[in-house]
């Protein structure tokens, strides 16, 4: 029964992460096309279409972040917690059988894969969004002086920030991947040191009781 529960939970979690990554991939495709268009020469008539595309992409990213920022935060928290506890069990449950150790290793790899998949997908999307915003912010200097209305729309749109975040708290970037594993390693070493100290105290107490 427990195995079935974990299997269903992993399946649901994996499907959601795959869907999130696929949505990020589609968003990046649109952003890449927009950046390519902005990198080339274009006419004044084409600017309005690019503005419309940029506005639609920004709205999609904001809507995506509104819907997924909290679930992604919970998924990353769950993955980090799962990696931490399985690493702790692997390090301190030395007497466990091979099947149990294999289950710990497999689940740790799955949690790590989901964590990496989410962070990489969101961070690359945010990088492309920042690149598109940079090109849009420089667009007024490439438009003739008489296009004041378009320049006004550009300045208005480029002041809006849009990115994928964790519960509207932290913008996901590549450095978060190293920070996450570094945090797990730091707390793992800390708890490991505390565990060894606790074991040494227990051994000392037993010796005192035996002598007494």
Give a description of the structure.
It is found in: Cell membrane. One of its GO terms (molecular function) is signaling receptor activity. The structure is a single chain. With 212 residues, the protein is an all-alpha fold. Helices cover 83% and strands 2% of the residues. The protein has 5 helices and 2 strands; from the N terminus they run ααααββα. Strands 1-2 form a two-stranded antiparallel sheet. It starts with a helix and ends with a helix. 18% of the residues are buried. The mean pLDDT is 81.
Alpha carbon gyration radius = 25 Å
Distance between the termini: 48 Å
Overall mean pLDDT stands at: 81
The rough form would be described as elongated
Strand order of the largest sheet: 1-2
* Overall number of strands: 2
Q: Please identify the structural class as seen in this structure.
A: mainly alpha
Pattern of helices and strands:
HHHHEEH
Mind summarizing the main beta sheet? 2 strands, antiparallel
The share of residues in helices is over 70%
Residue ranges: pLDDT <50 for 5 or more in a row? none
